[in-house]
Amino acid sequence: MTQLTTPPQTGDDVVLLTVPADGGYLGVLRTATAGLAARLQFALDEIEDLRIAVDEACAMLLAVATRDAELECRFSVTDDALTVEVSVATTRGSRLPAESSFAWKVLTALTTSASATADNGRATIMLLTRRAGGL
Questions:
Q1: Is residue 135 part of a domain?
Q2: CA–CA distance from 63 to each of 15, 35, 67, 89, 97 (Å)?
Q3: Model pTM score
């Protein structure tokens, strides 16, 4: 089941989206990413870069996800940036690709910054993209 909620936050607009950890649902996350980036008036090429980065991050997480896991995606919107945090429950002993891998090269080329954490059976990838030129 897909859930879309926006809890009250101070400062940033936050959107939480949870979908099954299945490649068939990645289009939902890509579409949400594009919509929020468009809200920030990102250029079309910036929107496409961010969609590709989210897709790549999700693919990395799907490779380590537990069976029947859910991808939890948190979008934080500020005046000139969009932060996307995607996390999933992971199988025991699984690891995300090394920062020297092609997947990480893609993430760092397409975003302002990218980072990952993995602990307590959960992996999270955070992507930050600032709009070119700011406001």
A1: no
A2: 24, 26, 11, 11, 10
A3: 0.86
